[in-house]
Amino acid sequence: MSTSDQIYKKLAIPHFKDVFDIIDEVMNQHHTPYYLIGASAVALELLKNNIDPGRVTRDIDFAIMTPSHNAYQKVCKSLLDYGFRERDFPYRFYSEKFNVVTDILPFGDIEQNRTVWFSDRKIEMHVLGMREVLSETIAIPIEDKQLHIPSFQGMIILKLVAWSDRQENRENDLTDILKIIQHYFHVKFDEIVEYHNDIFPEDGEIDHMLVAARVLGRKVSSILRKSTHLLEYMLQTLETNLNEVQKSAIAKRWAREKDWTVEYAYKVLRNFYSGIQEN
Question: What topology does CATH give the domain 3-150?
Answer without folding.
Answer: Beta Polymerase; domain 2 (3.30.460)
